């Protein structure tokens, strides 16, 4: 699995896709956090990074599928998938290596944003006047969100040999899991609305953004990742049916 991970990660770094993804993410978040007056921290007057944590999931919604769309679709289109699957590797090792490479690239996009935290920390009056617990929780939420989106993207890529179709399926799937249940809950009433909203990512992401790391939220994220990767495994095994 580590061999697959290194191969995939190096392939990303040797292609323009990785740099376009990282560049778009950093430029977009930088403009909203520091430049645009309606969302700029400098104009807002409060030492927090809520703009970043509200915006990042929507950017990830498109950028992570752009990373994952090639994982299996490209192998199928090039005809190398059979060669890969005949190697002394299990399906789980192949999926795990490709998935972790995509996940690590998404995490790599978050690393430069730590400079935002440092800047706001220094600019606070008094210095350090920022809710660090909520910031750490929000970063953890973004990392887990990226993990789920990457798993859904890898699944979408395993279902088709066309990268564009894989991208579109992943975007729709990520959107439904992130925001679809919230939208459905908004038209319901009573306890049913609460339980439906808990099926989506947004509710758990909001909880983590408050700095409250609840085991139920962690179990939710890990469960969605496990289900998506298991579905990817079934999609690969379908070649034998």
Automatic annotation (TrEMBL):
Transmembrane segments: 12-35, 55-73, 94-118, 138-157, 164-181, 218-236
InterPro entries in the record: ABC-2_transporter_component, ABC2_memb-like, Motility-assoc_ABC_perm_GldF
Domain of life: Bacteria
Main location: membrane
Gene: gldF
Subcellular location: Cell membrane
Topology in the lipid bilayer: Multi-pass membrane protein
Keyword Protein biosynthesis: no
Protein name: Gliding motility-associated ABC transporter permease subunit GldF
Organism per entry: Hymenobacter mellowenesis
Record keywords, A-Z: Cell membrane, Membrane, Transmembrane, Transmembrane helix
């Amino acid at each position: 699995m580590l061999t697959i991970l290194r191969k995939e990660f190096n392939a990303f770094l040797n292609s323009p896709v990785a740099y376009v993804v990282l560049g778009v993410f950093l430029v977009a978040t930088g403009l909203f956090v520091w430049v645009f007056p309606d969302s700029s921290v400098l104009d807002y007057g409060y030492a927090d990074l809520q703009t970043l944590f509200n915006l990042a999931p929507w950017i990830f919604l498109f950028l992570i599928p752009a990373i994952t769309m090639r994982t299996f679709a490209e192998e199928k289109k090039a005809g190398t998938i059979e060669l890969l699957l005949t190697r002394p590797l299990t399906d789980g090792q192949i999926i795990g290596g490709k998935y972790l490479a995509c996940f690590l690239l998404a995490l790599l996009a978050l690393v430069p944003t730590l400079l935002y935290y440092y800047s706001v920390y220094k600019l606070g009056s008094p210095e350090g006047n920022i809710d660090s617990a909520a910031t750490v929780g929000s970063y953890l939420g973004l990392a887990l969100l990226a993990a789920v989106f990457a798993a859904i993207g890898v699944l979408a890529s395993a279902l088709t040999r066309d990268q564009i179709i894989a991208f579109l399926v992943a975007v729709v799937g990520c959107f439904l899991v992130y925001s679809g249940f919230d939208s459905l809950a908004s038209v319901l009433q009573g306890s049913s609305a609460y339980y439906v909203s808990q099926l989506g990512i947004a509710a758990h992401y909001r909880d983590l953004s408050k700095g409250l790391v609840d085991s139920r939220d962690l179990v939710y994220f890990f469960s969605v990742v496990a289900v998506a990767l298991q579905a990817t495994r079934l999609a690969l095994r379908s070649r034998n049916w």
